[in-house]
Amino acid sequence: MEHVPVDFGTLGLVLLVASLVAMLTRRIGMPYSVGLVIAGFALALTPLGTNLSITPSLIMQVFLPPLVFEAALNIEWRSLRREFPLLLVLVTIGVVLAAILVAAAMHWLTGWSWLAAGFFGVLIAATDPVSVIALFKEVRVEHRLHLLVESESLLNDGVAAVGFALLLGIASGSGAGAGDIGLSLVRIAIGGTLCGIVVGAFVLFLAARTEDPLVEITLTMIAAYGSFLVAEQLKMSGVLATLSAGILVGNFGKLGSLSAAGRPTLLSFWEFAAFLANSFVFLLIGDAEASPVLLAAVPVAAVATVAALAGRAVAVYPSSLAFACTSLAVPWKYKHVLFWGGLRGALALALALALPLSLPERGEVIAASFLVVAFSIFVQGLTMPVLIRRLGLLCPEGDPDCGQPADCL
After folding, report:
1. Distances, alpha carbon 325 to alpha carbons 32, 125, 322, in Å
2. How far apart, in whole angstroms, are the C-alpha atoms of residue 137 and residue 28?
3. How far apart are alpha carbons 171 and 224 in whole angstroms?
4. Longest C-alpha distance within the chain, in Å?
5. In the structure, what pLDDT confidence band is assigned to residue 1 with cuts at 50, 70 and 90?
């Protein structure tokens, strides 16, 4: 892992800014993530600063595990299992179609090589769990819609990581055939999931032998970070590992492994951990967006943004048609939210920054990725609450159970 110079001054500044932004955005009705990006942009223009640089290691190994784990804790297994056929189509066929469309558009319209266009198609086609989770902390919607959007974003991340890893192999000249690619796909996805299950089960085994809430919190931190790091060390999907560990702990911990007295404390801790991770991520995005280098990439980014939206439409609308006459049929209102709510964020930036240095268009791809993320956060993020209200999908006031299953951890 890269060395990250985090000092107490940086931590204190982030906590202060995050608190002020949270209070202000709630008062004026602005999405919290948008306010943080604006704050990060403003800080970059002052002598103050976060003293941090946005890097793949910082996002993937420090901030992403708590965000994924906290979201997974609240995913009900029975609901996920019921929706899994639909989700599987969206995150496989849908993402592949989106990536192909985006790659073709960037190759033919901007002149990028197929390899650079393919990298961009993969990293921008999948929705980002960091952005989506932050959005649904502020906008409470019906439970099925919440489940579909959040679960798809988490599973999409695993698919993007697999596709990105395969393209890295091609870029390095490994020359893998179709059989090798298929085996790699299975190893990364299934292996990562099994890592999460093993680590999660081990943590539950230990947690069943204590009723100390502080020890239980510590063990769940091991589940979140340990599953991610073990899977990544084995060249598997760390996000799928953390996701499966979180679902396991959230659904089976309530059966006796986690004490009844410690569950509220546990959930509060992870809610705070997600709040802190979100604060860092979006402040860093705002700080990076202040770079004048990005201005030169605006024309290419405009093409990339339109291509990304078209790819998202192809991923959502045709993919869900297969279930139109089944119990898993997706209402048109939900499809519109899945399409416009397919936000991009820190994950796309982490993958873009991880592009090989030998790629000639590397700088252009990174700049385009940052600007597409900016459009996603500011335009889509700001208009999502309005869209949800106009579609009549907002949870009623005073209904604490809307948007979450009643029997989560």
Report:
1. 38, 27, 8
2. 16
3. 31
4. 61
5. very low
pLDDT digit string, tens, across residues 133-154: 777 777 778 888 888 988 898 8
Cα–chain-centroid distance for residue 158?
10
Which structure tokens are listed for 207?
């947690």
Average pLDDT over residues 315-332: 90
Residue 117 amino acid letter: A
What crossing angle do the helices spanning 143-171 and 346-353 adopt, rounded to 10°? 0
**How far is residue 95's CA from residue 185's CA, in Å, rounded to a whole number?**
14
Domain range summary for the chain, segments of one domain joined by +: 8-390
CA atoms within 13 A on the CB side of 302: 4
Query: 81-98 as b/e, with b when 16 or more CB fall inside 10 Å?
Result: eebeebbebbbbebbbbb
Which residues on adjacent β-strands are paired with residue 394?
141
Residue 205 to residues 208, 242, 253, Cα–Cα distance (Å): 5, 17, 10
SS3 101: helix
**Identity of the amino acid at 193:** T
- In CATH, which of 3.40.50.970, 3.40.30.10, 1.20.1600.10, 1.20.1530.20 is domain 8-390? 1.20.1530.20
Determine the Cα–Cα distance for residues 206 and 265; give it in Å rounded to an integer: 18
Residue ranges of alpha helices (H) inside 126-236 are: 129-138, 143-171, 178-207, 213-221, 227-233
**Residue with the two structure tokens 């990339």:** 304
| Nearest-angstrom CA–CA distance, 221 and 202 | 13
Alpha carbon distance 406, 150 (integer Å): 17
Pick from 46-55, 221-230, 253-262, 350-359: least confident = 46-55
Q: How many helices (H) and strands (E) does the chain have?
A: 19, 0
**Is 263 in contact with 216 (CB distance < 8 Å)?**
no
In angstroms, the CA 112 to CA 99 distance is 15
